[in-house]
Amino acid sequence: MRGKMKAIVKEQRAPGAILKEVPVPEIGDLEVLIQVKATSICGTDVHIYTWDEWSESRVKPPYVFGHEFAGIVVEKGKLVNNVEVGDHVSAETHIVCGHCPQCLTGQAHICANTEIIGVDRDGCFAEYVALPAENLWKNDRELSFEEASVQEPFGNAVHTVLEGDVTGKTVAVIGCGPIGIMAVGVAKAAGASQVIAFDLNNYRLDLAEKMGATRTVNSGVENPLEVVRKLTENNGVDVVCEMSGHPIAMDQGFKMVTNGGRVSILSLPVKPVEIDVTNDIVFKGITVQGITGRKMYETWQQVSGLLGSGQVDLKPMITHHFPLEDFEKGFDLMIEGKCGKVVLHP
Ligand SMILES: [Zn+2]
Ligand SMILES: [Zn+2]
Fold this sequence. Notes:
Layout: E1 4-10, E2 18-23, E3 31-40, H1 43-50, H2 53-58, E4 63-64, E5 68-76, E6 88-91, E7 94-95, H3 101-104, E8 115-116, E9 128-132, E10 136-138, H4 145-149, H5 151-161, E11 170-174, H6 178-189, E12 194-199, H7 202-210, E13 215-218, H8 224-231, E14 237-242, H9 247-256, E15 257-265, H10 277-282, E16 287-290, H11 298-308, E17 318-323, H12 327-336, E18 341-345
Parallel strand pairs: 11-12, 11-14, 12-13, 14-15, 15-16, 17-18
Antiparallel strand pairs: 1-2, 1-4, 3-5, 3-9, 3-18, 5-6, 6-10, 7-8
């Protein structure tokens, strides 16, 4: 029989999670079983762990959560032919339907019927995870499991920054959580002339600087709009990557973007946000983009190219490692914000 494995289980509709033994998952003909070597904690996992309003409305305990990982294929279904046992893999975490209008027109990242690993079905905070083979991304064996485990959120950063031109342009990254910090590295690698990073957390601003920010701004200490005016000869920045979800910071983003510029929003504000549409969008002629997930699989190719070539080095922002058993320490760090990416090792 298949035996048991250790997993972090969201057991109850309440804050917290527990480590327990659960059965190793069975796989279908089109699925693979992956031995998880490294799994990183995402902001989404923190929402589920702390049990906020969003998770209360979305997730259905008990189940195994976690979605960012790297591992090795240990078993494959009868009909799987895109990977072999022994391959190093990560996965696109959005499982899409393949038949809605978006899927049929090459826009599967906005599939109307998306299921997310570790949110809507069992995830990877475990020794093994079972997944549809078509969601796998084969990793270069040279890439460490730690770095490979953060490719999924790195893909969010890549998708946001590269959804328009950045070469030779001024880029503001508002909100330096792990994805914001990675966005700094992407903008820098893509040839932005200035990368200005904003946050209230100096620990994370230091990481943004390590990833290549040309200027970091603690928005609680300096006025972001004044800083941008000075750095851009009153023009404003060409591109704003909004990663904070904070209403004041978002409004500042729309105010600091130059006429004809772009605001790409990856963050998820918890409430409707007030924006001066007339003056800050229409009269400025800017482009506003909502960014969700990663383009399948254009973004993954960009991710592999940027990491494989060394154009972006994610090591400085992977700040903590724990065995799976010590997951609570990892979550505490994430809640405090005293970390970059936290990686757990099953
Ligand atoms: Zn994530
Ligand atoms: Zn679809």
